[in-house]
Design a protein that fits this description.
mainly beta, seven-stranded mixed β-sheet, 11 strands, 48% strand
Length: 128
């Protein structure tokens, strides 16, 4: 059974840092497309950062480029991380990790509908 479990959220001040973790289990994720998404109240879920299918190359949405870093450790049954620096109030959202385990003809997946598995989410709140 595939399971994704996020942790590491919390309440921080603007300019602070946080590291989110996603523990993935139930199958091999070393070549899976995996990503971090977020959903703010009243808004749709949006991509934050992602690993492309079958590679360690990454993608970042413009608003977090240079501040956030996505990483993963496949040696530990796949742990994925999101290192968030210089946090801003507009980063406040529930953060989710997602995984896509089948190849769909391309390497970068940024639409939440393209992901097969999701964690339960972790709240990040940034105060000004």
């Amino acid at each position: 059974q595939v399971q994704l479990v996020e942790s590491g959220g919390g309440l921080v001040q603007a300019g602070d840092s946080l590291r989110l973790s996603c523990a993935a289990s139930g199958r091999t994720f070393s070549r899976a497309a995996m990503g971090w998404f977020r959903q703010a109240p009243g808004k749709e879920r949006e991509i934050v950062a992602a690993f492309k299918w079958g590679a360690d190359s990454t993608y970042y949405t413009d608003s977090v480029e240079g501040r956030f870093t996505i990483s993963r450790d496949n040696a530990k049954n796949t742990m994925m991380y999101l290192h968030m620096n210089s946090l801003k109030p507009e980063d406040t959202a529930v953060y989710y990790c997602g995984a896509r385990t089948t190849y769909g003809g391309k390497y970068l997946y940024t639409n939440p509908a393209e992901y097969d598995y999701w964690g339960q989410g972790t709240q990040v709140t940034v105060s000004s």
